[in-house]
Structures are given as structure tokens and as C-alpha cells.
Design goal:
Helix content: 40-55%
CATH architecture: 3-Layer(aba) Sandwich
Order of helices and strands: EHEHHHEHEHEEEHEH
CATH superfamily: P-loop containing nucleotide triphosphate hydrolases
Strand content: 5-15%
Structural class: alpha/beta
CATH topology: Rossmann fold
Distance between the termini: 5 Å
Number of strands: 8
Largest sheet: 5 strands, parallel
Strand order of the largest sheet: 2-3-1-4-8
Number of domains: 1
């Protein structure tokens, strides 16, 4: 089984896809966004839609990857975002002897992304993510009945900054990873609701 790296624009459903893969294959989910939120000193940068330095994120990621036992596999969600970060990631994987991995890239229409971001809420307890339009009770999590909140960085301004970073970098990222035979495009399978995808059928032979 391969380790998986997910690259997609903000709001595309990387977290949802990660949840499906965790349930189906018992992956360890590493969200760089969640890791960074544990570091208050970086949150002002993230909330404004900017990226922390490559050295900072690579150290955070390295520390997390070193916690994983050799017989476990991971999903990396939220990194890399730029061409330079892909190069840093590749070098880190070489350093840690991580060779068996696949990068999955998928896109979603920008209008759909904006709607998802502006209506996205998260449970403070179990960390489930929802679209507030789908909730009968806008204040409680259907999974554990805890309070749900909106992320401070889920704003249109922040989305536009992150989306532009994605658009500016994705071609170079794709070319770099394609040369290494590490890229799998999920675009032809992407639906408006990624929860509807049969992940085991689509990715079973890939991972």
C-alpha cells in the first residue's frame, strides 16, 4: 500500500477524501493545517491567507512523520502548495527513506469551492467538517452533538489568496511529479460532492 499526498485547491474536499481513505484502508491522516493550528505563533500568517516559511512547515512535518511506525501508511493533506514545497517534500522523503507514495491531484469548479468555504463549519470536539446548509441544527455536530464553529481563515479574501497560490503553482508541480511517475489525476472522477465518490473502486488499483 502506498502513502498518499493530496494536492487540490482550498475547499476541494481533501479532508473528506482523507476520511474516506482512512475508513477504507486504515491510513494515518496528517493534515498540515491542523498541525499548524497547534502553533499559535503561526496562526496570524495562516489566517491572513499567507503561507508560513518552507523551513517552518518542513520541520513540523518531519517531526510528525517520524512518529509513524514503519508498518503504517499516511495521507498528507494540505502540503505541498508550491513548486518549492514539492521539492522540499521530495528531499524530506528521501531523508526519511519514504519511497512508496503517490500524489493525487483533483480540481473542483471555483464557484463550488467558494460556496464550500463560506459555508464550511467544523466540530470543536470530533473535528468533523460540514456544510452548514446540510445541518438541521446549525449549532450542534450530528456526530457527537458538540458545538460547531467556523474557522477564522474560512473567508473569501483568504480563499482567493490560497486559490491563486494553487493556480500559480499547479502546472509546475504536475510536471515535476509526472517526471517521477508519482502523479495521479483524479479530475475525471470529481463530482460536486466528493462524498459520493466510490474511492475503493477508483483508487483500489492505484494505492
Amino acid at each position: 500500500m502506498k502513502n498518499i499526498i493530496l494536492i487540490a485547491p482550498p475547499g476541494a474536499g481533501k479532508g473528506t477524501l482523507s476520511e474516506k481513505l482512512v475508513k477504507a484502508y486504515n491510513y494515518i491522516h496528517i493534515s498540515t493545517g491542523d498541525l499548524i493550528r497547534k502553533h499559535p505563533e503561526y496562526m496570524k500568517t495562516i489566517t491572513s491567507g499567507n503561507l508560513i516559511s518552507d523551513n517552518q512547515i518542513i520541520e513540523i512535518l518531519k517531526e510528525e512523520l517520524q512518529k509513524i511506525n514503519g508498518d503504517k501508511h499516511f495521507i498528507l493533506d494540505g502540503y505541498p502548495r508550491t513548486y518549492e514545497q514539492v521539492v522540499h517534500m521530495t528531499n524530506l522523503f528521501k531523508e526519511l527513506n519514504i519511497t512508496d507514495y503517490i500524489v493525487i491531484n483533483f480540481d473542483v469548479n471555483k464557484e463550488i469551492l467558494i460556496d464550500r468555504i463560506l459555508n464550511r463549519v467544523i466540530c470543536n470536539n470530533c473535528k468533523h467538517v460540514y456544510n452548514i446548509k446540510d445541518l438541521k441544527d446549525n449549532n450542534k455536530c450530528p456526530n457527537c452533538e458538540s458545538i460547531i464553529t467556523k474557522r477564522t481563515d474560512d473567508t473569501l479574501e483568504t480563499f482567493e489568496k490560497r486559490y491563486n497560490i494553487y493556480i500559480q503553482n499547479i502546472d509546475a508541480i504536475s510536471k515535476y511529479l509526472s517526471k517521477q511517475n508519482k502523479l495521479f489525476k483524479l479530475d475525471s472522477y470529481t463530482s460536486e460532492n466528493i462524498k459520493d465518490l466510490d474511492i475503493t473502486k477508483i483508487l483500489g488499483d492505484i494505492i
